[in-house]
Amino acid sequence: MTDITPCTPDDLFQKLDDLGIETTTITHPAVYTVEESKEHCGDIPGAHTKNLFLRNKKGQMWLLVCLEDRKIDMKLLGKALGAGKLSFGSADRLMEFLGITPGSVSPFTALNDKENAVKVVLDSQIMNISPINSHPLTNTMTTSIKPADLVRFLIAINHPPEELDIDNLDQLAHDAT
Predict the structure, then answer these.
(1) Dihedral class, residue 4 (left if φ above 0, else alpha if ψ from -120 to 50, else beta)
(2) DSSP secondary-structure letter at 168?
(3) How far is it between the farthest Cα atoms of the chain?
(4) In the list 17, 94, 104, 143, which could disulfide-bond 25, CB 3.0-4.6 Å?
(5) CATH number of the domain that 152 lies in?
């Protein structure tokens, strides 16, 4: 079991600042669903994310960051990633590896994965929209960041992301077999 002391939003903001990455953050009521996020954050320009913490039977884990309205075929996603059958990671696993509770999942949570156990996967579509809006380790705030800066952040914390074309999951899954 990984023992981590989760980073705080302030730790995240310091890391971003140390990297020279500019962000904007707003505070809002806690949001747990895409619908609640749209209600409280829908007027923030840019891409809004849905973040899926996934695992396979072998215990490998992925964090998929995609557009909030994406419908994801888990069977095709598992094939495209070479992961086999995927399921959602438990709240306990989420806390153990990413140091957060359900509702706060975002690409920024990779900061807490010191063992590099979780692979970050970015929907290629989201990379064409700026800024990208995600929770900064808490679901009571939303932070806006440029796509290139998000990638730079993830690389700096040893989580170079994989880009995946969610629009072509069926073809990617076919090619992977």
Answers:
(1) beta
(2) G
(3) 44
(4) 143
(5) 3.90.960.10
